[in-house]
Design brief:
Elements lengths: L10 E9 L5 H12 L2 E7 L2 E7 L3 H10 L6 E9 L9 E3 L19 H7 L43 H8 L20 E5 L2 E3 L3 H10 L4 E4 L4 E6 L3 H11 L7 E3 L2 H7 L4 H7 L6 E5 L15 E5 L4 H10 L3 E5 L11 H7 L6 E5 L11 E5 L2 E6 L9 E2 L10 E3 L9 E4 L2 E4 L9 H17 L6 E5 L5 H10 L4 E4 L1 H12 L9 E11 L5 E9 L4 E7 L2 E2 L4 H5 L1 H11 L3 H7 L5 H10 L5 E2 L2 H11 L12 H11 L12 E3 L2 E3 L1 H12 L4 H25 L6 E4 L6 H10 L5 E2 L11 H14 L3
Parallel strand pairs: 2-5, 8-14, 10-12, 11-15, 18-21, 21-22, 23-30, 25-29, 30-31
Antiparallel strand pairs: 1-3, 1-4, 2-3, 6-7, 6-14, 8-9, 9-13, 10-13, 11-12, 15-16, 17-20, 18-19, 19-20, 23-24, 24-25, 26-27, 28-29
Helix pairs in contact: 5-9, 13-23, 15-16, 15-18, 18-19, 19-21, 20-21, 21-22
Bound molecules: zinc ion (2 copies) and fe (iii) ion.
């Protein structure tokens, strides 16, 4: 550099905020500086990355910092201050981290990058065939993390001492593995083996596994965030055996396959391919559109969940088996998946025929994430590995939000921590009715709080006092304010927060179509139009209530809801015909007595009622949402899914499905196919709620419409509601789940808003 061109404006201190540690950001800056003749230094600190830069093209340097950043980096802000230049630095250096940081967050686990995969497949490379190759662009992160900062000593890689070759890569700034904490090779890193009945079988673990899979065996495979159970996805008998042993009767299994294999079974759009190949490596729901696979993979559904291999172990295994594999979580139905080797041997003993094991410990138990694509963007069905622990920025107005912990719901549990203007929503933690899941939930609250140095001053939970999470919140709150949030208000606020709706932006009309939640009036809600914001709400409209006859049994058994709704519509005779095999009169007595028959406006139960009328999951749902998912799959088969909607009556804020059931009964008696009924039901529900929300917007009482609640994981319903609201601003979920997996975010921002406004 020509020293005469250096003056005081050519030295800058550049602060980079966001997900910039553990993603190869410093080597990237170093290489950029070499290319652009910039001198100075780069280092990590508690707030992210700092750069001291001296040079003549610093504007271009700053632009390139953002435009050319490594694929796993996510830059929230670049802030620059001009510095007085003392002595001109000779070169550009990477200096050691300053301060122990926890503001910068931890990177989610990332799928194997192309460069690592090429090494693993190249016989000339020292990592040829190695199942644990990774670099700064890929590999395990959160799943192996024990504490902050993200250094090797704080991960489960700590016990593997680096060999000389790995050490020199780790220390070379120009290397792809510079400061890659999970760096490993066959000489120094984790080891893979094949095991039967607790005994290691000698031979190539990948080849042995592939052979057993091809023979129809069920394998337990230790992955990134937990154990999977795997079998050949073309083998209906193996799938049936897996269902029997896992006690999972009908809930869909996810599949792992390479892109060519996936293309054989489904047509994928370019956008779906982009989502599949995202470093987060999520399960993507794709239509069953090409060569069919056994129906018992996902009975009655129109989609299959596919995931690409995302570790070298998976790539090597799929190369060897050359077929799609079932990859379902390694557990007995309802329990958390196993992560430890002894735990897996114990829990999966009666399920797995053999084990593909390794000796790198899984620290964070993370289920695979499940997502889909609609024409309106991404739809998150389950948020897990690859997506956490990423943070969401809070909306304008929440800059001074206190630290809040919110505990969420019960069946699709997740908690949320607010700190420094950001929300950290935990991964999916399962159904807390299971004692092991509950135990894990409490431990994860503690471990997240420790990792993120979180010290709440406000606690939030659901209004329902019987939820385990509500009881935990009450016990934890102590002297802190405890904010109990109405369930569907929390759904509304979650949607607002995700869309960064400002604190002072005014009310919206939230269409909340959901399962069950305790309402502000003591009845059970779940089909609502709530007008409000973070600070409060009013119930502008709701589905006409029906008894949940038998309480919890009404959640599991769709026929109960069908009988109640048909009776209300004056169609008791039809109910007697359709459900002649079920104890209708006993049910009616329960409903009349009012004991164990609370009234509910739940849209989820209305879906169940319609599904049972059409003969879907009539007797019992074997998993939550089964009836509704099958009803949606049926509706998609209708020749004109947007055909004439069934009518709902609307009177004084009550949306009544009586005319809907009467119209369906007329169709039914005239032999109209079931898929047409399913489609007209979806369209009718969408039209009724969209109409009620539109009224609020057109009267100036709401500025936009927000869609939330578990029913909005139904892409057909979402699509229809959006069509009816085409000319109105609508907020939808694209990054967090619309169901209770996103609930805690809503609780947290409501609690924060109340504190900010002094409520
Ligand atoms: Zn890599
Ligand atoms: Zn090594
Ligand atoms: Fe809910």
């Amino acid at each position: 550099m020509d020293d005469s061109r250096i003056n005081r404006t050519t030295a800058r201190r550049i602060r980079v905020r966001g997900q910039v540690q553990g993603v190869g950001f410093r080597p990237f800056v170093w290489q950029l500086a070499q290319r652009m003749g910039v001198k100075g230094a780069v280092w990590n600190d508690a707030e992210g990355v700092q750069i001291f830069a001296v040079g003549v093209q610093l504007d271009a340097f700053e632009t390139a910092l953002q435009s050319q950043a490594p694929s796993l980096a996510r830059i929230d802000a670049v802030e620059t201050t001009v510095e007085k230049l003392g002595k001109l630095p000779f070169d550009f250096v990477i200096t050691s981290s300053q301060g122990k940081g926890n503001q910068t967050g931890v990177t989610p686990d990332a799928a194997t990058c192309d460069a690592c995969l090429a090494e693993v497949r190249d016989p000339a490379q020292r990592r040829y065939g190695y199942a644990f190759a990774s670099c700064t662009q890929c590999g395990p992160r959160f799943s192996i993390l024990q504490g902050m900062p993200f250094d090797r000593e704080m991960t489960s890689m700590a016990r593997f001492a680096m060999c000389a070759a790995c050490r020199s890569e780790y220390e070379a700034p120009q290397d792809r593995r510079f400061h890659a904490q999970p760096i490993a090779c066959p000489d120094c890193g984790p080891r893979l083996w094949f095991e039967v009945d607790g005994t290691e079988i000698s031979g190539d673990a990948i080849q042995l596994s592939a052979q057993r899979l091809k023979e129809g065996a069920i394998l337990a495979i230790k992955g990134l965030g937990g154990f999977h159970l795997a079998c050949d996805a073309r083998n209906a008998a193996a799938i049936a055996t897996l269902r029997l042993r896992k006690r999972r009767l009908t809930k869909a299994f996810a599949l792992m396959g390479t892109l060519p294999v996936i293309r054989r079974h489904t047509d994928i759009s370019p956008k779906e391919e982009t989502l599949l190949t995202d470093p987060g490596a999520v399960i993507v729901l794709l239509d069953k559109s090409r060569e069919p696979l056994p129906e018992n993979l996902a009975p009655g559904l129109a989609t299959l969940g596919w995931i690409l291999p995302y570790t070298p172990l998976h790539h090597l295994l799929l190369d060897a088996v050359e077929c799609p594999l079932v990859m379902t979580s390694g557990n007995s139905s309802g329990e958390p998946q196993a992560i430890g080797n002894p735990e897996a041997r114990e829990k999966l003993r009666d399920i797995a025929d053999a084990y593909l094991m390794h000796d790198r410990d899984i620290v964070q138990r993370l289920d695979d994430s499940v997502e889909g694509l609609t024409q309106h963007g991404r739809m998150v069905l389950r948020r897990g590995r690859g997506r956490v622990p990423a943070t969401l920025p809070l909306p304008p107005g929440f800059e001074d939000a206190p630290q809040v912990v919110a505990y969420g719901g019960q069946i699709k549990s997740a908690f949320c921590l607010l700190k420094s203007g950001k929300a950290l929503l935990s991964h999916h933690l399962g159904d807390l009715d299971d004692p092991q899941a509950w135990d894990r939930f409490q431990k994860d609250v503690t471990s997240y709080s420790r990792l993120f140095d979180h010290h709440p001053s406000v606690v939030a939970c659901d209004l329902h006092p019987d939820l385990r999470t509500s009881q935990l919140a009450a016990a934890q709150a102590g002297d802190m304010p405890l904010v109990e949030v109405q369930h569907h208000h929390a759904h509304l606020a979650a949607c607002l927060a995700e869309n960064r709706w400002p604190l002072d932006a005014g009310p919206v009309a939230g269409i909340i179509l959901d399962g069950l939640g305790l309402g502000a009036d003591g009845t059970i809600w779940g089909g609502e139009v709530l007008v409000g914001d973070y600070l409060g709400f009013r119930r502008a409209a709701a589905l006409a209530a029906a008894p949940l006859a038998g309480g919890d049994a009404a959640q599991r058994e769709p026929w109960r809801n069908a009988v109640m709704r048909l009776d209300q519509a004056g169609l008791a005779d039809l109910a007697d015909t359709l459900f002649s095999d079920w104890p209708r009169d006993l049910l009616r007595q329960v409903a009349t007595s009012g004991i164990n028959a609370p009234l509910s406006s739940s849209a989820g139960r209305l879906f169940d009622a319609m599904a049972a009328c059409l003969g879907l999951a009539t007797d019992r749902q074997s998993y939550e949402g089964e009836a509704a998912m099958r009803l949606q799959a049926l509706a998609q088969r209708a020749p004109d899914a947007f055909g004439t909607p069934y009518p709902f009556a609307y009177r004084e804020g009550v949306l009544d499905p009586i005319p809907m059931f009467q119209s369906w009964a007329y169709d039914h008696s005239n032999g109209v196919p079931a898929e047409v009924g399913a489609a007209r039901f979806h369209a009718g529900l969408a039209q009724a709620f969209a109409g009620a929300a539109r009224t609020e917007v057109e009267a100036g009482r709401a500025k936009a419409v927000a869609l939330s609640g578990g029913c909005f994981q139904n892409a057909t319903l979402l699509d229809m509601v959006l069509r009816y609201l085409r000319d109105i601003p609508v907020l939808i979920h694209t990054r967090i789940p619309a169901n209770d997996g996103g609930l805690a975010l809503g609780q947290a921002v409501i609690a924060a808003a109340g504190t900010i406004r002094g409520g």
